[in-house]
Amino acid sequence: QDGPVVLVLVPSRELVLQISAELGKYTKALNVRICVAYGGQDGGSGDKRTQAAEVMKGVDILVASPGRLIEFLEAGICRLSRVTYMVIDDADEMLDMGFAPQVNAIATQTRPDCQTLMFSATWSTDVQGLAKTYLTDPIKVVVNRAEESMANKNVQHTVMIMQSLEEKNAKLVELLTQLKAEGRDQTRTFVFANTKQFVDEVVKTLKAKWPNVYGIHGGKTQQDREYSLSQFRSDPHAVLVATDVASRGLDIKGLPCVINFQLPLEIDRLVQRIGRTGRAGMKGVAYSFFSERDAPMAAKLQKCVERAGQSVPSDLTYYAKTAKSAKKQAKAKGEDWAL
User: Fold this and answer.
1) Which residues, 6+ apart, have CB-to-CB distance to 102 below 8 Å?
2) Is the pLDDT of residue 44 over 60?
3) Residue 331 above 70 pLDDT?
4) pLDDT digits (tens, 9 = 90+) for 218-227
5) pLDDT tens, 286-304?
6) How confident is the prediction for the chain on average, in pLDDT?
7) Is it true that 6-141 and 147-332 share their CATH fold?
């Protein structure tokens, strides 16, 4: 009735489910009660009334997204005066999604001596500001030179220069066909696109070849998203096509391949996408389809590939030099040059 002792804040529904499932393995041994709070359509596990009823029975560890937790706090369903440990996971994504005001409102309601742990895939100025606000004399641990936007060296990352959408579609089918022909126990593949429209189109293209292809984006219902993730986790040969809504924090075991059908606008996000494979010491492969529209990102991509000890295509080097020259010209003219 007094609220949780441990609060875990995450930016997405998928992460709430993943983390609560992992914590659930320890409930009997530790004799603790775990509850979730996240948004979603009525009728599923994201049903507000169901979640509220569970929280009101008493909770030791609460895994929540900021929006739904704020609703519960305002309605008097939950209190945070007992929170002794607060975890802010995927802090950079939390900021990107505009959750800073909600995080602040939540943090001010915890105990004055609450210990806070913050995890972030990147170390931008905004994330540093968040750390200064909520952490007191913190210890900073940097893993895998994360501050340098360097891709995992356990992942063989290949950048492929593409001239058209048709070429991308053909190469995607070719890569998946080759992977499945190798006879591996697991050929599970994550394909990333930037928009809902492209996710749907890529799914349609691939479903003409294989039935176990699924899509996730913000326009899907919560039930659809949960079903697709469940199928992807359980089928070692499934393909999941997704926007970045699914790229952060998710831990998919047995994921040998990631394909960036479209490159994101930020190099850090590309590193995060690639990081879905090659986890926990395992090896993985990643392919990134680079087209002319990605030229402004060429220099950063080149550095990212070089830092990971991978080979850089000569065409990518050309685009990097061309983009650098275009940027100088725009600056000289007083024009804005950005992605």
Assistant:
1) 66, 67, 69, 70
2) no
3) no
4) 888 878 888 9
5) 999 999 889 888 998 998 8
6) 87
7) yes
Residue in this structure with the two tokens 């050309």, named with its chain if needed: 318
CB atoms within 10 A of CB 331: 11
Question: Within 10 A of 55 (CB to CB), how many other CB atoms are there?
Answer: 22
Contact status, residue 189 vs residue 176, Cβ threshold 8 Å:
yes
pLDDT at position 116 is 93
C-alpha dihedral, 313 to 319 to 320 to 322, nearest 10°: 150
Confidence (pTM): 0.76
Q: For 140, what's the count of Cα atoms within 13 Å in the CB-facing half-sphere? A: 13
Domain boundaries defined on the chain? 6-141, 147-332
Q: Name the token pair of 267.
A: 């190099």
Distances (CA, A) of 175 to 88, 182, 287, 312: 37, 11, 9, 19
Find out whether 255 and 155 touch, Cβ atoms under 8 Å: no
> What is the rounded distance in angstroms from the CA atom of residue 322 to the CA atom of residue 314?
12
**Domain 147-332 = CATH 3.40.50.300:** yes
* CATH number for the domain formed by residue range(s) 6-141: 3.40.50.300
